[in-house]
Amino acid sequence: ARDLIGLGYEVVVIEKSRGVGGRLAARRIEGTVVDHGAPLIECVPGSALHGLVHSLARDDVVWMSASTVAYRSGATRLAKLMAEGVEVLLGVRITALRAARAGFELGGEQGNTHGVVDAVVISAPAPQAADLLEQSPEAGTRVTALRAAVYDPAVMILAGMRIRTPSSLEPFAVETPFARITAESARGREPIDGVMPVVARIAPGRSADLFDAADGDILADLAPRLSALCGAVGEPAWTQVKRWRYATLPVRLDPEVVNPPASRIVVCGDTIAGGGLEDVFASGRAAALAVHRALSMAPKHSETLGNGAASRTTS
Predict the structure, then answer these.
(1) Burial, 297: exposed, middle or buried (Cβ in 10 Å; 0-12, 13-18, 19+)?
(2) Burial status of residue 87 (CB atoms within 10 A of its CB: 0-12, 13-18, 19 or more)
(3) Max CA separation in the chain (angstroms)
(4) What is the pLDDT of residues 102-159, one digit of tens each?
(5) Burial 253-289 (b: 16+ CB within 10 A, else e)
(6) Are 297 and 262 in contact (CB under 8 A)?
């Protein structure tokens, strides 16, 4: 979106959730902040993402290493900083991209419309991207390719532990069924009343087994084991369970199949990129260029969202 604005397009970002960030997710619990999505914001020095993070740096940024960054106020901070100066519609779900003149009409859940645009960038997981493309003039074999994507789910346990404040992000020995256990203190967040937030990600196979289980059953089974691994004193002060249905895609899809040449509906994100944030960020920038090339060759419509500019795209 930022790149397209820089190229002179009028852009609107439409987000079905209440806030921006996606897997850069954070939640406020018991007076503190817990990152429960992507465990790290990795950006190699010299990369475009590293440069962006530096250019947007504020006083809540924590450089955990030369290539790893966190935010005391939560991982969503990066997305919020990126969204400054960008028109963002929150809590809006688009369900169809109907043909309209030379562009696409954005169909909402109730059969209503959110206007007509020249191009669309979809960053949703593959099944949701397939649903949108299926209701568009650019369906075809790309929908079949997207439907073939198989994600590993993730179940996370968020817990407030009475433990010594660790100095590293992953200070605990990890055993089955856990895949990763992180301590929020490494992100610059101090314990509150001696309680330190810990985030435990359950391994993919076990997450699949537990995905539809009740929170209480998951916690009864695994919270005591988590406490023991963390060396906690007593039971957790608080616990929550978080689920990600489309957590990771072990095998990415072929970008050329998902995004045929001259497409004006372009898919980006970890559907076609590697799982790292840097790759996902690069795929978004590549989508902006693909849209720019396609629109340079296509006629523009006159009906738009907003103030009536000649060309408008949506992410």
Answers:
(1) exposed
(2) middle
(3) 66
(4) 899 999 988 889 999 999 999 999 999 999 999 999 999 999 999 999 999 999 999 9
(5) bebeebbeeebbbbbbbbbbbeebbbbbbbbbbbbbe
(6) yes
d(CA 53, CA 64) in angstroms, rounded, equals: 13
Say what the pTM is: 0.90
Tokens of 310: 């000649």
- Dihedral over alpha carbons 175, 179, 185, 191 (to 10 degrees): -60
* Pairwise CA distance, residues 243 & 255, whole Å: 28
- Residue 240 tokens, joined: 């929550």
Angle at 33 between CA 32 and CA 37, to 5 degrees: 155
pLDDT tens figures, 281-314: 999 999 999 999 999 986 554 333 332 233 466 6
Residue pair 285/3 in contact (Cβ under 8 Å)? The answer is: yes
CB 227 within 8 A of CB 248: no
Residue 214, judged by CB atoms within 10 A of its CB (0-12, 13-18, 19+), counts as exposed
Check residue 309 and report its DSSP letter. -
